[in-house]
Amino acid sequence: MEDGDEMPVRDGTKKSLIGAIDDGTKTVRFVIYEAERSEELVSHQLDKTEAQPQEGWYEQDPLEILHNIKMCAENAIDQLAEFGYSKDDIVALGITNQRETTIAWDKFTGEPLHPAISWNDIRTDSTVDAILAKVPDRNKNYLKNISGLPISPYFSALKMRWLKDNIKSVRRASRDKRLLFGTVDSWIVWNLTGGVHGGLHITDVTNASRTLLMNLETLNWDPMLCRLFGIHRESLPQIRSSAEIYGIVKDGSILDGIRISGILGNQQSALVGQNCLQAGQAKNTYRTGCFLLYNTGTRHVQSTHGLLTTVAYKLGPNAPAVYALEGSIAVAGGAMKFLRDNLKLIKDVTQDTEHIAGQVFSTGDVYFVPALNGLYAPYWRKDARGIICGLTAFTTKNHIIRAALEAVCFQTRDILEAMNKDCGMPLSKLHVDGRMTSNDLLMQLQADLTGIPVLRAQSWDMSALGVGVAAGHAVGVWAVERWRHHATPTHTFLPTTTDDDRDARYTKWKMAVQRSLGWASTKKSITMTGQTKRKSSMFQSSDTLTPPDSRKTSWDVDNIKPDIDSIKPATDEGVDSYIEELIQYSARKFSIFVPLKGPKDEHTILDDAEYYMSKKECDYDMCQCCQGKKKIQTDWETIEEIIENDPEIIFDSDDNPIVVEPVKDHLYEPAPLVGTSLKKRMQLEKLPVIFKNICNKLTNTSLT
């Protein structure tokens, strides 16, 4: 080929190109697609460093994420010459990211104020307790009608609050009005579009719906939720649709000048990439765990069976929001690693699981429940632990490995059953992706145990494709309607068992799950149980009695039974306390209850939930139909002032909650006069007894 000749494109027809940034938990990828083609043209990926400073803590370096994006983009764009393309052919850029992972940074310096807290980090357990102490009945599902999510360490609002409570630089930046919070997509966009020089602080509805701060009706930050979690509105990004031209890259990198036009959370992006754009369609991503999303259309279904409600996508500012039910499985590929690393039954997860398990035709009625850290949806039981049951003298490692594969399939069926009960739309097929889908035996077992066809995507990762579709749609080179009818290449696995056979096996699986429950004793603080520690008394105090107009007027008897069984008479004086505790539980069980003192019916901020739920997008001036005509002016300054003055809740050594009024910064307040009584400067009634005694002694000493 002579100099100057252009190399031919793949089929002789040159198309517009779409770039996709895919930031995952462990890797960063940059993928380039030809418009309206689902096959990757070129791609490059780099691994990320994940730190674990303490057990259950997972952190990432925000600057490494940006560096890896630039390196991957440069490498992928260099490959374009092989196909007759160049960087100038890229007309749009999409971003898909790990959800819930939270970053705090300084908007004037652009520096991260703390490492990114990963989505699977559980350091916010104590923060959850403090928030639940403010919620009626300490009900973790109280906010689901507004946000679709339970109060859990999983979501971004808890991570933001933890950063404000525990990191001085974050607290100081919040006070100085220079703090920015965001999920990874916000961090990437802000830096790509200029950073401190006018970078866009935005997110899309799918990522915002995973923060616990967005109202599913208005698709905007909910003032009541912001107040509850103590998060300033000005530190949060603007919520946009999933497909529109947000801005242009201007960071001096190889991506300079390209339009950013698509943002989707990775699981929602996989839903779009799998072409599950109609209500009643679902996809499952098989990784260390599993993430199953079920498209419910333009109605958001409130689950009563342990599932989450989330925004699936909103493909344009004027397009309707589409919602989904989501269920997650804690251990899928993780079970195979457990068999390899802990039990030494296999050496290579990819090859050995399919080969060894395929040497037997069934599990021999062996069932493996991989509840290594409890069970996720739809059970949500932290006290569950892994079990292998049904062993006989003829059981081999082949049966156990096959049972581990079937466990992934049974857990998927658990979620599908819950989804069907919640929305009444039976599933006709299941789209799948993820690294585990390369296992043909697993895919066939999934089809057999659910009774529906399983369609495996051509690529193991569909997240990049989904945001590529969204970005291309926004600039007019990838029509969603055409994509909706596009036949994505798949490999289909059809069921080969009878209904009676699969139902019989599923029944035994449920029996195995039942046997896995209650193995671990979970310690709950007073904010979770409403009880003081058992060493002092099992009786409720007057300030923890259930309000008469509460949603929950009595305890769940089923939840009480395990505690009753755990109370055992020991020696002499222990017998009396055992009897008293048993009488207490019996009285509650049979509704014979004499309150010590009627609780004060206090008004909480959550009593305004109905008011906020009645508001629409127009009321927040976030709609396209009436821009500039505000019907309601939200007084954010007043709300933020309330947030600043909101009393904090701390816990003493006995897990008793103490309300502490906020202390103003001493740098801006005059020092107290020498000799002023400590009693006048401290609120003794809010302090533990030991501190009251110290305070009294110090005061008496200063007076003498």
TrEMBL record:
<dbReference type="Pfam" id="PF02782">
    <property type="entry name" value="FGGY_C"/>
</dbReference>
<dbReference type="InterPro" id="IPR005999">
    <property type="entry name" value="Glycerol_kin"/>
</dbReference>
<keyword id="KW-0319">Glycerol metabolism</keyword>
<dbReference type="GO" id="GO:0004370">
    <property type="term" value="F:glycerol kinase activity"/>
</dbReference>
<dbReference type="InterPro" id="IPR018484">
    <property type="entry name" value="FGGY_N"/>
</dbReference>
<dbReference type="InterPro" id="IPR018485">
    <property type="entry name" value="FGGY_C"/>
</dbReference>
<dbReference type="GO" id="GO:0006641">
    <property type="term" value="P:triglyceride metabolic process"/>
</dbReference>
<dbReference type="InterPro" id="IPR042018">
    <property type="entry name" value="GK1-3_metazoan-type"/>
</dbReference>
<comment type="similarity">
    <text>Belongs to the FGGY kinase family.</text>
</comment>
<dbReference type="GO" id="GO:0046167">
    <property type="term" value="P:glycerol-3-phosphate biosynthetic process"/>
</dbReference>
<feature type="domain" description="Carbohydrate kinase FGGY N-terminal">
    <location>
        <begin position="18"/>
        <end position="273"/>
    </location>
</feature>
<dbReference type="InterPro" id="IPR043129">
    <property type="entry name" value="ATPase_NBD"/>
</dbReference>
<keyword id="KW-0418">Kinase</keyword>
<feature type="compositionally biased region" description="Polar residues">
    <location>
        <begin position="524"/>
        <end position="547"/>
    </location>
</feature>
<feature type="domain" description="Carbohydrate kinase FGGY C-terminal">
    <location>
        <begin position="285"/>
        <end position="474"/>
    </location>
</feature>
<dbReference type="GO" id="GO:0005739">
    <property type="term" value="C:mitochondrion"/>
</dbReference>
<keyword id="KW-0067">ATP-binding</keyword>
<dbReference type="GO" id="GO:0005524">
    <property type="term" value="F:ATP binding"/>
</dbReference>
<dbReference type="GO" id="GO:0019563">
    <property type="term" value="P:glycerol catabolic process"/>
</dbReference>
<dbReference type="Pfam" id="PF00370">
    <property type="entry name" value="FGGY_N"/>
</dbReference>
<feature type="region of interest" description="Disordered">
    <location>
        <begin position="524"/>
        <end position="557"/>
    </location>
</feature>
<keyword id="KW-0808">Transferase</keyword>
<dbReference type="InterPro" id="IPR018483">
    <property type="entry name" value="Carb_kinase_FGGY_CS"/>
</dbReference>
<comment type="pathway">
    <text>Polyol metabolism; glycerol degradation via glycerol kinase pathway; sn-glycerol 3-phosphate from glycerol: step 1/1.</text>
</comment>
<protein>
    <recommendedName>
        <fullName>glycerol kinase</fullName>
        <ecNumber>2.7.1.30</ecNumber>
    </recommendedName>
</protein>
<keyword id="KW-0547">Nucleotide-binding</keyword>
